[in-house]
Amino acid sequence: MIRHIVSWKLSAEDEAGKDAAAATITQTLEGLVPLIPEILELRVGRNVAYPQTNFDLVLVADYASLEALEAYQVHPEHQRAVGIIKPLVALRANVDFEV
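^ thats the sequence. predicted structure below, dont judge the formating
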């Protein structure tokens, strides 16, 4: 199984803007679960500590294999989600590993 972790530093500088961006991203990503069968599990969480240095939001998702992750990456619904998320983000980091 592959665990896919993505962290974002949001572009918004005020709390209201960060809240709105986090809500949009969470709703967008959670909406992919019924549309993309390769997603085994998907969770989105907002940072609760050290906001000056930590990223603001994280995605943790599991896929059966690297091929399943790759199918998710190119899926049209994921590509649509990327278009919604990208403008809300200043910085992105991700790691994919076997579990």
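The beta strands are 2-10, 41-46, 57-63, 89-98.
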